[in-house]
Amino acid sequence: MDERTFQIIRRALEKSWSADTSVCFSPTAAPSYGQCAQTAIVVQEYLGGEILRTTGWHGRGNHFYNSVAGERVDFTADQFDMPGYSYALKYEDCPSSVTEALAECLPGQVDALRHAFRRSIAGAA
Question: What is the pTM of this model?
Answer without folding.
Answer: 0.93
